[in-house]
Amino acid sequence: MSLSNLTVSRRQVVGLGLGLATTLGLVACGSSESSDASGSSSTDSSTDATEDTEDETVQIDSSAYDALIATGSVADDAAISASTWATKVKDAGTMRVGGVQTSMLFSLLDETDGKLRGFDAGLAQLLARYVLGDESKIENTQVTSDTRESVLQNDQVDTVFATYSISDKRKEVISFAGPYYTTQQSILVNVDNTDINSVDDLAGKNVAAQSGSTGPSILEELAPDATIQEFKTDEEARAALSQGRVDAYVIDTNMQLGSMVRNPGKYRLAGDPFGPVDAYGIGLPLDSDGVDFVNVFLHKVEDEGLWEDLWKICIGNRAGIEDVPEPPAIGA
């Protein structure tokens, strides 16, 4: 199954044998800074967010996730000693990670056991296992789009895993390993909408986008005849869609998938992803030799099938996507 016209149904929730989740945090941390945008939600959007948390979220298979992380490789002493970055982490006995705990698919805190699980969280835990021999030896620091660079510059963390988009501007102050994942923009519509099936169908439609994200500029270029309505938060945009005040909502595909996993049977993706490819990297201190070390680690994760299995557990199985994407070329 491709992402085109994808719907997560309530039947999938039951079929996967997954339970309810009524206390999950807000979907956050897509590839753009918009995922960290702040702003008070309107009464309508607050109501919509409350209804969302009461839906049958397709939860992660925590047992399969934990078992997978425990199979990760451990670097030998020669590999560690050849890297100043890895040696520092090894000597400290813990890896300091900047990340988030509210991203539905990439890093979400399970309040029942205090563990972070998701695609980013899993890669961070695999890296900790690779360096320290124990995936639990992580000190987590929450970051936002405004603090991801500074925590690396100030030596508050050793690395950042936070759906962190690689950009030339950021590379002036930090370094990136990877990329390890790519994404584009996608169109979210209500499940009963049959009029919109591609970006071309947005002509003449009212389309929501998040202010501060790349969505509005991409829509101006690729859907010039659409009427764009900007909202401060993801919740406000989805509320407008649910209430019929807009016909579609355009933002990062991963945020859309997260909304669908939280609200099975409510939305569908209309058409294929579009717009510029956004590559995620692993943040490291500027000019750190950790870049080469982590890139070797990423190659091992891919070669051993861990990247594919982690993607299935965190994203594919939950969103009903059978086709595993090709990981991007590391170091590109």
TrEMBL record:
Domain Solute-binding protein family 3/N-terminal positions: 94-318
BP-aspect Gene Ontology terms: amino acid transport
Gene Ontology CC annotations of this record: extracellular region; outer membrane-bounded periplasmic space
Disordered, as annotated region: 32-56
Keyword Transport carried by entry: yes
UniProt feature, compositional bias: Low complexity: 32-48
Keywords: Signal, Transport
Gene3D superfamilies linked to this entry: Periplasmic binding protein-like II
InterPro entries: Bact_solute-bind_prot3 (IPR051455), Solute-binding_3/MltF_N (IPR001638), TAT_signal (IPR006311)
Family: Belongs to the bacterial solute-binding protein 3 family.
Name under which the protein is recorded: Glutamate ABC transporter substrate-binding protein
Species of provenance: Thermophilibacter immobilis
